[in-house]
Design brief:
The protein has 453 residues and is α+β, with helices and mostly antiparallel strands. 51% of the residues lie in helices and 9% in strands. The protein has 2 domains: 274 residues, no CATH class; 114 residues, no CATH class. This is Lipoprotein.
């Protein structure tokens, strides 16, 4: 018998049945009160649209450098530092302890008819999809589908979402089956972190969480966490393959295609990463420009700060994000230059660029002055000249780097900005001051590193 909706709402306490506005509390770890950020409507709604070709290209690029484990389930657990919810154990009489069996080691015991039939149905499904045997690598820890393997299969069955997006991303790589299993187990293991009581992510999982929030938005991520928990409940109580498939398809409707594509992209990027390397990798992903432009609105920090996220925990009305104190301070300095004058510390500013240069002099040997937020006529009209010609927005850049940044703004970069109709400069002109500033700082850094053309 299925539980009624009101009972499930009680079980899924992290979401509840209401539609209260969500917030992000930013903890600096320095003893100061948290910064409470309520995402603004601007640049917040829904998941960022990602081009299929761009996602495939990014995954194929990583596939050439990844060293994939022959035990993807174990690798995913090590990555996120989690323990299995089930598995095969052997009792050691001498130590009086239950020891987990290693990959490929199984107990010989009778299994229920339902478990056996569910496993056979899974293997038949693999054949129908054109892949043989244990196509998703779900039977590495036992001959039957149990625990985490059930959850992972249900997630894979999210029609129109996870599996389709994942297979589409890996099918042209050298070892698509191995990469798909690694990516699927990474995605499922990460989802399980949010499906346990009092969920919290640390290390690489925390950076991944921050990235997912920036790509899909706070409300969408909140809904995904609800979906993860509901999927775990339904996968655990499913008896037949059809029930697992139905649970997965319901989850697919919660996730949606855009969020699924972003989720696959980010969890695949996490394979073999640390928090620092994943943070650096995020800046070169498809859609990174859109994420950078909306980072402050969605999460209250600049995109470059994501690598400094140390912990993300569930709160009653949203999430608590712990970030290194220096990273938050850096983000706060950027927020002061919004041009609104509210709460801004005094900054030297001029009515014109010529006035700025007369006062400040040359940028230095081999350098040129560069406006982080460009001095276009539209920006002058929207934000005022003093928001552009000031000591925080105009910075010295190496001449060669300055030329590369200026040339980049004149090109079309559909993978980064999500449209092939506009140049980077034209697209950027539609964004807020803070979004333009965050993007401008990221562009300098990524072009310097060779991450952007």
């Amino acid at each position: 018998m299925r539980l009624p909706w009101w009972v499930l709402c009680l079980l899924w306490a992290l979401v509840g049945c209401g539609g209260a506005a969500r917030v992000i509390r930013i903890e600096t770890g320095a003893g100061s009160p948290p910064i409470v950020h309520a995402p603004r409507a601007e640049g917040v709604a829904g998941a960022i649209e990602l081009d299929d070709d761009a996602v495939r290209s990014a995954v194929a690029r990583w596939a050439r450098t990844l060293s994939l484990s022959v035990h993807p389930q174990e690798a995913a657990r090590r990555l996120f530092e989690v323990d299995p919810r089930s598995g095969s154990y052997l009792f050691d009489v001498r130590s009086r302890r239950m020891n987990p069996l290693g990959p490929g080691e199984h107990l010989t015991a009778e299994v229920s008819h339902a478990d056996a039939e569910l496993t056979r149905a899974y293997l038949r499904w693999c054949v129908r999809t054109g892949r043989q045997g244990d196509c998703l690598g779900l039977l590495a820890e036992g001959p039957m589908l149990t625990g985490d393997a059930r959850f992972t299969l249900a997630m894979a069955m999210a029609r129109g979402a996870v599996l389709e997006a994942l297979w589409d991303a890996v099918k042209d790589t050298a070892h698509p089956e191995a990469l798909m299993q690694a990516a699927l187990w990474t995605a499922a293991t990460y989802a399980l972190l949010w499906a346990v009581p009092e969920p919290m992510t640390k290390g690489v999982a925390a950076v991944l969480t921050a990235g997912v929030i920036l790509y899909v938005g706070l409300d969408t991520f909140w809904g995904l966490v609800q979906g993860f928990r509901r999927l775990m409940v339904e996968a655990d109580r499913a008896v037949t393959f059809d029930e697992l498939r139905d649970a997965g398809e319901r989850f697919g409707k919660v996730m949606g295609r855009d969020a699924a594509r972003a989720f696959v992209l980010l969890t695949t990027a996490a394979i073999g990463s640390t928090g620092a390397t994943l943070g650096a990798k995020l800046q070169g992903l498809p859609g990174a420009a859109q994420v950078a432009a909306g980072a402050e609105a969605r999460m209250g920090v600049g995109f470059a700060v994501v690598a400094q996220v140390e912990e993300v925990a569930l709160a009653v009305d949203g999430f608590t994000v712990t970030i290194a104190p220096g990273a938050v301070a850096m983000s706060s300095r950027g927020a002061h230059t919004s041009g609104s004058g509210t709460g801004a510390r005094p900054v030297k500013a001029w009515k014109s660029f010529s006035g700025f240069k007369k006062a400040m002099g040359p940028a230095g040997q081999g350098r040129q002055w560069h406006h982080v937020v460009e001095q276009t006529p539209g920006n002058v009209q929207r934000f005022g000249p003093e928001s552009l010609h000031n000591a925080e927005n105009v910075i010295p850049l190496d001449e060669a780097l300055h030329r590369r940044v200026s040339s980049f703004y004149s090109t079309k970069q559909p993978e980064l900005i999500g449209t092939s109709r506009l140049t980077v400069r034209q697209w950027l002109s539609t964004q807020s001051y803070q979004a333009q500033r965050d993007f401008g700082l990221l562009a300098i850094e990524n072009i310097r590193k060779g991450l952007w053309p």
